[in-house]
Amino acid sequence: MPYAAPSPDALGALAALVAGGEVFVLTGAGLSTDSGIPDYRGRDGVRRVMPMQFGEFVGSSSARRRYWARSFVGWQRFRAAEPNDGHHAVTALQELGLVRALVTQNVDGLHQRAGSDRVIELHGSLGQVVCLICGDRTARAVVQDRLGEANPGFADHVLAEPGGSRVSSQIRPDGDIVLADDLVDAFRPPRCGVCGADTLKPDVVFFGESVPRERVDACFAALEASRAVLVLGSSLAVMSGYRFVRRAAARGIPVGVVTRGATRGDAEASVRLDAPLTPTLARLVAEVGLRSGAGPR
Question: End-to-end distance of the chain based on CA atoms, in angstroms?
């Protein structure tokens, strides 16, 4: 789809909002779509995929086996994703000294790989794995190696399945792919290297699970000290992100939103751009650089 540039008035209003600095930036899955990681919802706001729920994951060993089998295959593609120009644009806004807080709903680590620092990962990171029994933490790369040793040839086998109806090789936002249940029956899931339980979980907030209170409090504290909010690539459909827009509106803090399609926070937005993120952010960085007179630091 050709790039539909926002109107000069809309881009100018957004640039004015950001150029004043002290911006609370909230990013969502739409920022990573240009890196090859699809989001959960289309422009119509309808969820395209249903991720595993927290209650299902903790409820049975078979559910955890299914998750890890799918994630084992998907991770090989997920970790190959590279930051796109949108991530680099956010880093540029940080380097211009305009960002007070960078909060992401994404679990892909692409902000950090693009050079951003002080990133609050609201929903955690797929790069870490935690045991729900003893609390031991392990790097996902280590768990992936263990899974490869325990399940030699598994990924090659399932991706070679004929017909395509039992395997969807498209990566999903939480790093897994879709596999038919019969393909995962023989999969050997990971076990904790400390207590031996089969309760290893990626250190991310599943649907149906709550964001840790201290993390939410840190975000609210940063928001209260900010003069503007900038939402990038989020439909704000879930309360974990939408609550910050609601709080900002209640405090009289202006909110700018850039994403494709409608969002839950449109009524609270002071500036709203329905536009592709990557090229729009490149234009925004150029504009605010001129307005702020700041240089990277």
Answer: 35
- For 20-75, the pLDDT digits (tens) are 999 999 999 999 999 988 766 555 444 555 678 999 999 999 999 999 998 998 88
Examine the domain organization and report whether 243 and 284 are in the same domain: yes
Could you tell me if 184 and 264 lie in one domain? Answer: no
157 is catalytic: no
> What is the CATH classification number for the domain harbouring 296?
3.40.50.1220
Q: Which of 87, 88, 111, 123 is catalytic?
A: 123
How many structural domains does the chain have?
2
φ and ψ of 155, to 5 deg: -60, -45
Convert the pLDDT of each residue in 82-93 to its tens digit.
999 999 999 999
Cα(289)–Cα(11) distance, integer angstroms: 13
Is there a single domain that holds both residue 166 and residue 291?
Answer: no
Phi, psi of 41 (to 5 degrees): -125, 150
* Ramachandran bin of 99, using left for φ above 0, alpha for ψ from -120 to 50, beta for the remaining angles: beta
- Scan for tokens 């881009």, then name that residue: 11
Looking at residue 182, its pLDDT comes to 77
Instruction: Tell me the whole-structure pTM to 2 decimals.
Output: 0.88
**Which amino acid type is present at position 119?**
V
* Cα dist from 44 to 61, 118, 137, 243, whole Å: 35, 33, 38, 21
